[in-house]
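Run: sequence + magnesium ion -> complex structure.
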Amino acid sequence: MARRVAIGNNKGGAKKSTTAVRLAEALAKLGKRVGVCEVDPQGNASRRLGWKDDPNNPPLTTSEAIEANAEGVAAQVWQPIGWTVPYADNIVVMPARYTLEDRVSEAGQRGAYRRLAKALKGADDHLDYVLFDCPPSLGHLTQMALAAAHHALGTTEPEYDSLEAAVRYRDFVSESGEDLANPDLDFIGLVVSGYDQRVGAHIGQLDNSRKLFGDQVWGVVPQRSLITNADEYAQPLSEITGSHEVRAVYELLAQRFIKEVPAA
Ligand SMILES: Nc1ncnc2c1ncn2[C@@H]1O[C@H](COP(=O)(O)OP(=O)(O)O)[C@@H](O)[C@H]1O
Ligand SMILES: [Mg+2]
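>> structure
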């Protein structure tokens, strides 16, 4: 079984999807095999990885894997990503489109919160890590990811509302393990992204994130337009001119990830 990490924050724009995609990229460059499992009906991580939907012949997605309610079905859903760099072969995606929202109405059905874990059973043995890109809510979709995960990783912008939402995610994770039949689930770290040292609020909230999360602050990604552009155009960072500094930041985060998430 891969080691599974749920990337979350109880707010949109907190850099969850960018963290999932760029961590996957940095881990893949280090030779790790990574599955990005999209648990957000927005599908941002899938698109940024270059995955393309086909309305005429729609590929299977996380939604169908959950809906099937059967052990191991996720094995049929992993797909190659769309990047053409050599290390892209180390990344697969379980994509999502807006239809994933339909799974929310099934939350009251028996065992619904375990359906993603069930789908993944035996379906990620070929991977080192699975990263769940969670939606901004703490509702059913995030709970399915947390029921399937070994660990939870928070993200945040260095701003009040985002940091408060990271604390909510951390506390929710800490309190929910037993309820999700996953008592060993733990919160392992926080990635602060979009830091601009010219903004007073950012200086104050980076300081606060260290006060609130201590050693669990894994690193700080500076605010850089090249990251927005790489996400916008669904490109790997290694294809972006001048991305050396940013790649180094994500490589350090990937090293910390490997240290904090021990192999099975
Ligand atoms: N370090 C950064 N510098 C500048 N823009 C960033 C950075 N990290 C992420 N972004 C951009 O910020 C926006 C929000 O990030 P996203 O990952 O989509 O947030 P979430 O998934 O939490 O809603 C996106 O447009 C993304 O490209
Ligand atoms: Mg997102």
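>> summary
Residues 16-17, 40, 42, 44 surround magnesium ion (ligand 2) (CB under 6 Å). The domain at 3-260 is CATH 3.40.50.300 (Rossmann fold).
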